[in-house]
Amino acid sequence: MEQVTNAEWEPRIIAFLCNWCSYAGADLAGVSRYQYPPSIRIVRVPCSGRVSANMILDALRAGADGVLVSGCHPGDCHYISGNLYARRRFALLERLLEFVGVEPGRISFSWVSASEGEQFAKVVEEVTERVKRLGPARRLVKEISSCPS
Amino acid sequence: MSRPKGSVLVVGGGIAGVQAALDLADSGFYVHLVEKSSAIGGTMSQLDKTFPTNDCSACILSPKLVEAGRHLNINLLTLTDVLDVQGGPGSFNVRVRKNPRYVDPDKCIACGTCAEKCPKKVPSEFDLGLGTRKAIYLRYPQAVPLKYAIDPEACIYLKKPGRCGFCKKVCPSGAINFDDKPEEFNLEVGSVILSLGFRPFDPSGLDYTGYATFKNVVTSMEFERLLSPSGPCMGHMERPSDHKEPRKIAWLQCIGSRDINRACHGYCSSVCCMYAIKQAVIAREHSGSGQLSSSIFFMDMRTHGKGFEAYFDRAMKEGVNFHRARVHTILPAADDNLLLRYSGEDGGIREEEFDMVVLSVGLETDPEVMKLCHDLGIELDHDNFVSTSLFAPVASSRPGIFVCGALGEPKDIPQSVMEASAAACGAGGILHSSRWTETRKKEFPPERNVYAEPPRIGVFVCSCGINIASVVDVEEVTEYAKTLPGVVFAQNNLFTCSQDTINQMSETVKRERLNRVVVASCTPRTHEPLFQETLREAGINKFLFEMANIRDQDSWVHQKWPHEATNKAKDLVRMAVAKVRGDEPLPYNHVPVTRKALVIGAGVAGMVSALSLADQGFPVCLVERKDHLGGHGRKFYRTWQGNPMQEYLEELMERVQSHPKIDVELGTTIDEVEGSVGQFRTRLSNGLEVAHGVAIVAVGAESFKPRYGPWNYLYGKNPNVHTLLELDQRFIADDNALRGLHEAVFIHCVGSRVPERPYCSRVCCTHAIDQALRLKELNPDMDIFMLYRDIRTYGKREYIYQEAREKGIVFIRYDLDNLPNVREKDGKIMVEVIDPILERQIRMRPDLLVLASAVRPRDDVGELSRFFKCAMTEEGFLLEAHMKLRPVDFATDGVYLAGLCHYPKPVEETIAQAQAAASRATLVLSRDAVLSESITAVVNSMKCTGCAVCAMVCAYSAVTFDRNSGKAVVDTGLCKGCGACVAGCRSDAITIRNLGNEQIMAAVEAAMEE
Q: Label partner for B272 (CA 20 to 30 A): which of B27, B252, B335, B601?
């Protein structure tokens, strides 16, 4: 396994945030000046229910060290039930990824509301820490092809 | 008469005022929205969460405020007082005074540098003095308008010019203007809506509460701020004396309500029971792992609204303690704790120690508001709420002036929002002939066809004064942007959103023939509409636009990492460019509107809705399944204020039948409904086809008749056992036999608040007590016993409860473990119940037994809801789009609801809701066409395998499975563009326009490039 020696190494994490809650929560973190590591790149989606398993896999394949999906709290979904589908889909994918050898900590799911700026900063910090401990992600594709048969 | 004015004055910028303003501005009237403070939002903006959904208050409110703030036809006048109102309906002349803000709102960019440097700290009124703010301040972080204001009472410079002035020195945009002066001017409007809200009762005068003496006794409003993440302790619930997290909190109910001795407020404030439960639940969540013990001390638990009883049940299950007791003494204890002394229901004195006490204070009218109402000639009742009639619930005593929200009576948010729409409907009723005469309309040039062109992307990088530039190297980012594929132009601006830069951007788009634009600045949530409008002004489709959020999500959160923040900004710009490259121009989908309404159900709700629309000139088809009008109203004797119901109903039916715009279809039901907002086609059971733009569902509910089962109580077996409505029939018929009765017993909650029907029916307590009073009128010597669980005479209805007790009507409480026992002996009724105060069984032999039975949903309502794709609650009532802020809309656009099919409610609330539904319907009916979502799902039928997962996950029934083709089809009129179907599709056959997998992945892959 590749050794991570550089303590300053910043992972690159893709965050899919729903427009109505978590993206707004990320904005509020800014308005309130909560500081968090510059590790995440936010992609705004209408709803966490828009995030398919494919998108998460593709992000890992494109070289992301981690993926965060965040949506409205249960019951708060702007589109009634999208976040619940997201949660179910995510639970399945997490197990599948673990099965194929991707560490569970690489992908995270959270609820962050539009008023939880501090919570958002905290989530980013936790996710970053977790991914840092795992080290850089070896590309998913390579990972599979380089498996000793 | 000359034509009325086409504009309306709304006074008070809380949720009710904002809702009224939005309804009016969206249906063709120009609105002046006057707010006394520096920002709109009112009390709701101060709340942490809202019951019963636990929605974050600010989150659900903010979009409405932003919409009002940006609306072309709403003139937002903050820091403004109304001085005088002359004239009458159709033509009022209003004198207002705009107080100085000392900050030029056109220049202020809300960077906050001024407040950072301001040396003067004062208690924050928004945090009720628990926190501090500066002399130059934002009322709250999400304030609308998002502009700072100087408090002249606190500002050092304004008091002694030359002494400070730091803010002026540091303001990067030169917005500070110490020479700002008050301005007085006149407004000409056709109608006025007062939505001035309430103030929380101040318990300082009630010494037994200890509020004035003990630091850890706080009011419920103060506790909201303590819970709020934007409050003085950032949501880490702390008690004031030592900033420790409280472990044991007590809530005391009815502080300043239902108290004629000390607080002089005899009414019930309606909302305190629910907010106390909410606070108890939320506080427990804040403390984590059930560390917090919360106890509520109450007289009657009043959870009479939709979803409230279930919320109460859940709180009990989750361990919130409920004590039916009134605390009479609060004493200091060790460690700043408080010792509560109270008497239980059995009369025994108990003591318990708490870390903190929250006083559930009631609602009252602000003396300044009283004075304004007095000056305007608006009549107030003896509690200083605005007087209204039950049959005209939002009309004040002065014609043409309407009232909504807690100014009329204490009420919760959904009821206030309903009334706001009802008030808008009232104003529209006077002014409809002047619709669209004073409104402004934005005109755009024709859009350039850019399909064949290769991408020519322009990138505008904002410095936001120093907000971005002090952390991110904006020059470097701008230079970098120029190197990205497709980018032909990049520029750095000091303030991209300032008016001159906007104009310049429009010119640049035309000059450089740009066909895609990226702005790297703040958040699209606030600024995307502005820039999109700029694109349209430059003749470019507004969907060819992306934003890179390099302020809120970059420079502000990585202040200590300028190098990384600059790299991140480059990444974000690269991602936005990658995304915009694939964006396509999308159509602005206009759906032409058939300007006709279908109203289903001709009870009070349906008839009021139909008349409200018809009076504004819109044709209505009113469908009723029975062969007569009137619905349940025909069975009511009088309202709780004594207004005879049948007279009102006769007049209403007469108006409906003779109205030239209303077509009544009796004995008719709905067979089939097709189409969506603006374009519905409905086939009736009589074969008639109706084309209509909107529909109002007002199908009512039914009265529960306990013919068998546990709540039977001899109903149907003994002739002297009635339901409430059956007794009303005897009142209407003036049945003389009632005068000869000696003893009557009422049993409350028959079939309500029980496992199979766990909700409260809201109307029965008031109705039963009014009937008991009527019986006393008929025979003052009659003995009357009320067997109840909690008396829920909310608001001003409390007065008839008081009257009933004064008249000697006896109230005996029972609970589900000790149900009244009703038997028949020799044809006589015998009722036995255990009195919890005497702790003894009491036996009664009434000659009349009245069952206050539940209001239950109609069994066939599910069928109807499917026609319009409306959701239902677990109990079987129809479910509105949002419990708090969209109480009369369905999630399906163009369909509204009113009356008992929504939830049990008294006639005055039914009328208000019916008027509100009509108001919401005019938003569609007043237009030639409505805009539907452009970013919608689209099916590639070549790939579609017809598995129908997309149809199953769609919450709006916008995607359906077409049996003929075996493929999924999308109704773009219904689609909201959430993308649940895309993520659910197994064969990549469905996608969202401009949000396809390829496009999102283009952004993701761009993020990973170096």
A: B335
pLDDT tens-digit profile of B756-813?
Answer: 999 999 999 999 999 999 999 999 999 999 999 999 999 999 999 999 999 999 999 9
The answer to whether position A6 is within a domain reads: no
Contacts of B62 in chain A (CB under 8 A): 114
A121-126 long-range CB contacts below 8 Å, 24 or more apart?
A121/A29, A121/A34, A121/A35, A121/A36, A121/B557, A123/A68, A123/A70, A124/A15, A124/A36, A124/A37, A124/A39, A124/A40, A124/A68, A125/A36, A125/A37
What are all long-range contacts of B823-831, with beta carbons under 8 Å and residues at least 24 apart?
Answer: B823/B714, B824/B714, B824/B717, B824/B718, B827/B718, B829/B714, B829/B718, B829/B720, B829/B721, B829/B745, B831/B745, B831/B747, B831/B785, B831/B787
Task: Kindly report the nearest CA distance between residue B515 and chain A, in angstroms.
Answer: 22
What span, in angstroms and rounded, lies between the C-alpha atoms of B902 and B700?
8
Q: How many CB pairs under 8 A join A and B?
A: 164
Q: How far is B983 from chain A (nearest CA, A)?
A: 4
Interface of A with B in 59-88 (CB under 8 A): 59, 62-64, 75-76, 78-82, 85-86
Prediction ipTM score: 0.92
Using CA coordinates, name the residue in chain B closest to A58: B1001
pLDDT (tens digit, 9 = 90+) per residue, A98-125?
A: 888 888 889 999 999 877 888 999 999 9
Nearest to B978 among A47, A64, A75 (CB): A47
Chain A residues touching B565 at Cβ < 8 A: 38
CATH code assigned at A31: 3.40.50
As to burial, measured by CB atoms within 10 angstroms (0-12 exposed, 13-18 middle, 19+ buried), residue A143 is middle
The answer to whether A43 contacts B575, with C-beta atoms less than 8 Å apart, is yes
Structural domain contains residue A7: no
B561: distance to nearest CA of chain A, Å?
Answer: 8
- Of the candidates B247, B218, B281, B242, the one whose C-alpha atom is nearest the C-alpha of residue B48 is B281
Which residues lie closer than 8 Å to B719 by C-beta, 6 or more apart?
none
Query: How many independent structural domains does chain A possess?
Result: 1
Q: At what angle do helices B15-25 and B907-925 cross, to 10 degrees?
A: 40
Tokens representing B527 are: 């600024």
Strands A13-18 and A66-71: parallel
CB A105 within 8 A of CB A97: no
- Residue A118's domain spans which residues? 13-145
Please compute the mean of the pLDDT values over residues B848-852 and round it to a whole number.
97
CA of A148 vs chain B CAs: smallest distance (Å): 28
pTM: 0.84
Does any CB of chain B come closer than 8 Å to the CB of residue A26?
Answer: yes
Structural domains in chain B, sorted by start: 1-99+182-198+366-445 (3.50.50.60), 100-181 (3.30.70), 200-364 (3.50.50.60), 457-584 (3.40.50), 592-700+858-929 (3.50.50.60), 721-854 (3.50.50.60), 936-992 (3.30.70.20)
Residues B517, B456: Cα–Cα separation, whole Å: 8
pLDDT at B754: 95
Query: For residue range B723-766, what is the model confidence (pLDDT) as tens digits?
Result: 999 999 999 999 999 999 999 999 999 999 999 999 999 999 99
Question: With an 8 Å Cβ cutoff, are A43 and B1000 in contact?
Answer: yes
Inter-chain CB proximity A59 and B1004 less than 8 Å: yes
Q: What's the rounded Cα separation, in Å, for the pair B16 and A149?
A: 68
> Is pLDDT of B55 > 90?
no
Residues contacting residue B722 through CB under 8 Å, at least 6 positions apart: B730, B848, B849, B850, B851
CB < 8 Å to B1008, chain A: 12, 62-64
Q: What's the gap in Å between the CA of A79 and the closest CA on chain B?
A: 7
